Amino acid sequence: YAFQCRLHELANKRRISIAGASKLLANILYSYRGMGLSIGTMIAGWDEKGPGLYYVDSEGARLMGSRFSVGSGSLYAYGILDEGYRYVMSVEEAAELARRAIYQATFRDGASGGCVS
C-alpha cells in the first residue's frame, strides 16, 4: 500500500490525496474480499483540500466522515465522541476528547485492553 502511494507520488509529482489513498486501500482490500480478512481502519491526514478522515474495511467499504471509532470498544468510544464533539475545536480539546474516548473504550471493553467492571 505504501509502495503504491509512493509510486503515485513519483508518477504525478505530488503526494496522493487522502481521498486517493483511502480509495487505493479500499480497492486493495476489495480484491481480497471473501478470503477471511477482517479489517476496519481509518485513513487520516491533511492534503491540499484540508483535513481528511476515511473509514475503510475489509469488504472494500469506504466512508468519509468527521469522526470514527473502529474496533470492539468503538461503541463505548462513540458515546464519548457523540457527547463531546463540536465542529470547531482546538487541537487541545480534540486531543482530550480522543483521550477520553480511548480511555472509555479500553476501560469498558476487555478486548480493547482494559478492565471491565
Automatic annotation (TrEMBL):
Matching PROSITE patterns: PROTEASOME_BETA_2 (PS51476)
InterPro entries the record matches: Ntn_hydrolases_N, Pept_T1A_subB, Proteasome_sua/b, Proteasome_suB-type
Biological source species: Oryza eichingeri
Highest classification ranks of the organism: Eukaryota, Viridiplantae, Streptophyta, Embryophyta, Tracheophyta
Chain ranges passing through the membrane: none
Any GO BP annotation: proteolysis involved in protein catabolic process
Subcellular location: Nucleus
Gene Ontology CC terms, in alphabetical order: cytoplasm; nucleus; proteasome core complex
Protein name, as recorded: proteasome endopeptidase complex
Stored PANTHER family: METALLOPROTEASE TLDD, PROTEASOME SUBUNIT BETA
Gene Ontology MF: a single term: threonine-type endopeptidase activity
Recorded superkingdom: Eukaryota
Enzyme Commission number: 3.4.25.1
